[in-house]
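[Meeting: bench + compute handoff]

Bench side (C.D.) handed over the final construct sequence. Compute side (W.E.) agreed to return the predicted structure before the next meeting so the bench team could plan truncations. Sequence as handed over:
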Amino acid sequence: MREWHAAAQESAGMMVLPVKRRILIVDDFPTNRRVLREMLRELGHEVIEAKSTTEALSLISRDVVDLALVDLLAPGVGGPALCCILRNHSATQSIPIILITDTPDAENEAIGIAAGADDFLVRPMRTKVLRARVQSVLCRKSVLDSMDEAETVLFSLAQSVEARDPALGQHCQRLALLSSTLGVAMGFSAPDLIALHRGGYLHDVGKVGVPDRILFKPGRLTEEEWRVMKQHTVRGEQICGGMKSLKSVLPIIRHHHERWDGSGYPDGLRREEIPLLVRVLQIADIFDGLTRERPYKPAYTAEHALQIIQEETAAGWRDPMVVEAFMDVFPLFSNGDLTSRSSLQALALSLQEQNGWRVEESAETAAPFQHAPISEAM
């Protein structure tokens, strides 16, 4: 038994991460931040600080954060709401979060864990316990990060498809933001919002197999060329099909060109046969395409784009329920708010409006979001 215990201690000692990580402390009390910094000093990681959740969002928007230690009552939206915001955004959903409080309370702990916190600690904390919790969480994140390498390759592939046509600009980034914001307005769950965000980037990944002579042909496609073009949806599903983490995204990739009346492709799905997430992403995709300049058309105004979407709905191509939801949040899409700040901050503000949270925005938290034209949606 002693030999086993010694081996376990040795293994635990080897758990110190060789890679320097960035740990964010979110607390408005300087004393609390100083104590945590001192307790973490020997681990050798970089420690940064934020006095509020608003400042934390600004830091996370700009820099990579590997772990957040957040006071339960941090100014702004509070610790649980910050957890919810980070978990609702694909770029930050894997950041481990440890909530810290001065008062042991089972109800608060349950709220924090339900919001997505990885752990819950009560002051005063023993240094060894805090360090062990931090290292354990960081080690788990390292394992998850390595598992996501294949997914990262797929996202890079999708962006390379976009890069083939300079006119596309940041279409995938815009689509990920617009569709997930519409999903927020429709009350979607965090997993569904993440699927929409990923789908925005990956929906056209199958175009990697479409020859340039077809993809960039200025005139009408021949019947054979159109057949090749339409295969990009099936090919994209095949490319991403081996990733378990992308299971919820596969229907978006395969079916984003289906139509409400069954006249779309590749499977001719109609009405509710088309997954709801697909129908939501379609509207965001169409809106972004219509409001961008292309060689064959000017950039339409947001109002003109909405009119075209309504005409397509009347023609039976789009889901009237989703279009109605889009009209409700149309001011968010048309007044430039969503395209003037980072996608994380935009989603945070959308979530605060939905839940009644209060997040003070400053010039620091807003990040530029570039406009750029896209290629014709085929």
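W.E. noted at the follow-up: The radius of gyration is 23 Å. C.D. will use this when planning the next construct.
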